[in-house]
C-alpha cells in the first residue's frame, strides 16, 4: 500500500443499518482501505438529511435483507452505481428502478450456499426423524413416563423434489444423494449437465415426491408458487422444507394443511411476515421452525468479507 | 410349501416381552410358518414356570435390548442353540455364557445402520447449526422480542472423528463427506481399503477433531472409552455425538464438561441408565437429546422382519 493510494478519494460505500455481522465481528467487518465506508447508522440524522450532508456522493450501497432498496432510497443517491446485497436473494431491491438508472446489482454470491444447504438437510432429517420433538420429549422428562417414542421415517430412498436447482439446490442434492435419496428438480430451465429428473411443473413434481425443498429465488413468478394444489399433490405424508423466502409458499394454506393433516410436516427457516410466525405452528410436533438463520454461520460471515472485498 | 412341512414340529422361538415392532406392525411381526413363536408375554405365569410348562423345548430366543440374556435366563433354556438380538449391539447378552454353552449369537445385522447414521448426522447438524434450540426460540415467541438468533457453526471443513468404523460409522462417513467434512476414524484395526486418516488412540484423534461421533460396540474395552482425557483433548468447541451405547461415554464427566463449557455441545441418543437422563442436560441449549430412537424407523422395522426370516 502506497501513501498516494491513501490520499486519493476512495469510492464511498453507504451502510444504512448496522449489519448483523458487526455484532459478531465488530467494526473490522466494515473496515476497509479500498473504500470509504459511510455509516449512516452512526448518525442521529434521518437518512435524507444525513445524505444531503455528505460532501462526496455515495457510489455504492451495501443492502442487507432488512434494508429495502426502494425507488425512494435510490432517488436520494444520484451517483449510485452499485447495490451489493448481503443476501443471496435480491427481492428487497427495486430491480426495475435499478435497471432504469443503470445501477448494477450484485448479491452475496454463493457464500451462503453451503450453510443454507446444510440447514435444509438438517431440517429435513429433523422432520423425518423427529429430532427436535424427541429432544423436547426427553427434556420434558416424558421418556420414563411414556416409554417408546413414536418412530420416525427413513431418509433413504425418499423422493426429494428440489424447487430451484441453483447453487443452494445443487448442494442440497449432493448432500441428500449421500443418504440414498432420489433427487428430482424443477426450475425455469432444464440443466443439461445434471443427472436428476427434471419437472417443468412443480405440482407434477410434488405428486412424485416425499418432500419438497424450496431453494429458488422469490420473484413475481415464484410468489405463492407452493400453493393449495401443490400441497394436495404432495399428500398426507409429504414434507415441505423452505430455506428460500417465506412468500414462495402460500403460508395461510401451509398452516391449514399442517393443522388438518393434509401434509405430513414442515421445516421452515423463512416466513411471509418475519419475525412474525403463524402461532398455529407453535403447537405442532411435526413442524420445525428456525428464525431465518439458515443463511450463515460464524465461519460463513468471515467468508462474506472476502466477497465484499472489504479488508478485516 | 408342502403339507408334510406344516405337520412337522417347527423350531420353537421364544419371545419374552412384547417387541416394540409389534406395537407398530401388529401380530404380523411375529407370525411365521417356519418357526413356532412362543410368546411368553401373553402368559400370566412367571417366566420359569411358563418355560417349565412347555412340552417342546425352545431352541432360539429373540432378544431386544430390554431383555438381558443372562446366565440365569440361559439356564432356563437347556436346548437353546441361538440368540438373535433385535439390536445391532449384543452387550445385553452374556457372551461368555453363550460361548461356554456353544450357543450362537446373531444380531440385527446392518438393518439399522442407515437410520442410525442418518440420525447421527441429524444430531451433528442440529448441534452445530442449533436447530432444536432455534425451534424452541421461535416457538417460545422470542424472535420478535430478541431479534437476531445467535449464529451457529459451519459444517463444511469440520474435522470429524468417527469412533468405530463399522457399518454405521462408514455410513456416517459417506454422508459427512458430502458436506465437505474431513473424516478420520479410530478402531481396533486400521481398515486398508478406507481413505480416511486412522488413529490408534481416541484421545489423539479427539485432539485433531472438531467433533467425535461414537459408533462402536460397547465392550469391556470401550466402556468409558470417552473419558475426561478425551473431552480435554476435544476442547471447548468440540462436539460429541453418541448413537452407540451410553456407557461408552463417562456420562458424569460428560455432564460436567458440558455444564462447565469444557466441550462445546452434544447430541445424545443413548445414556448410561436409560430411560433416565441426567437432568442437568435438560437446561442446556447446546445439547440435543433423543430417547434411544436413532436405531429405526417405520420402514426400518419392516426391513427387520426380513433379517429374522419371519414372514409377515
From TrEMBL, chains A, B:
Keyword Cytoplasm: no
A Pfam family assignment: 2-Hacid_dh_C
Domain D-isomer specific 2-hydroxyacid dehydrogenase NAD-binding: 121-294
Stretches that traverse the bilayer: none
Domain of life: Eukaryota
Keyword terms of this UniProt record: Oxidoreductase
Protein name in the entry: Glyoxylate/hydroxypyruvate reductase HPR3-like
Species this protein is from: Camelina sativa (False flax)
Lineage start: Eukaryota, Viridiplantae, Streptophyta, Embryophyta, Tracheophyta
Gene responsible for this protein: LOC104783141
Amino acid at each position: 500500500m502506497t501513501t498516494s493510494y491513501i490520499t486519493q478519494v476512495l469510492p464511498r460505500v453507504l451502510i444504512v443499518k448496522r449489519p448483523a455481522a458487526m455484532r459478531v465481528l465488530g467494526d473490522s467487518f466494515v473496515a476497509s482501505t479500498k473504500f470509504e465506508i459511510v455509516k449512516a447508522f452512526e448518525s442521529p440524522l434521518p437518512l435524507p438529511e444525513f445524505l444531503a450532508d455528505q460532501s462526496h456522493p455515495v457510489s455504492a450501497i451495501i443492502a442487507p435483507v432488512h434494508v429495502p432498496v426502494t425507488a425512494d432510497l435510490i432517488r436520494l443517491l444520484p451517483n449510485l452505481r452499485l447495490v451489493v446485497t448481503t443476501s443471496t436473494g435480491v427481492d428487497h431491491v427495486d430491480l426495475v428502478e435499478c435497471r432504469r438508472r443503470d445501477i448494477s446489482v450484485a448479491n452475496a454470491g454463493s457464500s451462503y450456499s453451503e450453510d443454507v444447504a446444510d440447514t435444509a438437510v438438517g431440517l429435513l432429517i429433523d422432520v423425518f426423524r423427529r429430532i427436535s420433538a424427541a429432544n423436547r420429549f426427553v427434556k420434558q422428562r416424558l421418556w420414563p413416563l411414556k416409554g417408546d417414542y413414536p418412530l420416525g421415517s427413513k431418509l433413504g430412498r425418499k423422493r426429494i423434489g428440489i424447487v430451484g436447482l441453483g447453487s443452494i439446490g445443487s448442494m442440497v442434492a449432493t448432500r441428500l444423494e449421500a443418504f440414498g435419496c432420489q433427487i428430482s428438480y424443477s426450475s425455469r430451465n432444464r440443466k443439461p449437465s445434471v443427472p436428476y429428473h427434471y419437472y417443468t411443473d412443480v405440482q407434477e413434481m410434488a405428486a412424485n415426491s416425499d418432500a419438497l425443498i424450496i431453494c429458488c429465488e422469490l420473484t413475481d413468478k415464484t410468489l405463492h408458487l407452493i400453493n393449495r394444489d401443490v400441497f394436495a399433490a404432495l399428500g398426507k405424508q409429504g414434507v415441505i422444507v423452505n430455506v428460500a423466502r417465506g412468500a414462495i409458499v402460500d403460508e395461510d394454506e401451509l398452516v391449514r394443511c399442517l393443522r388438518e393433516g393434509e401434509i405430513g410436516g414442515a421445516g421452515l427457516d423463512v416466513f411471509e411476515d418475519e419475525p412474525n410466525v403463524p402461532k398455529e405452528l407453535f403447537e405442532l410436533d411435526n413442524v420445525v421452525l428456525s428464525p431465518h438463520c439458515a443463511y450463515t454461520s460464524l465461519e460463513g460471515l468471515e467468508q462474506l468479507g472476502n466477497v465484499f472485498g472489504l479488508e478485516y
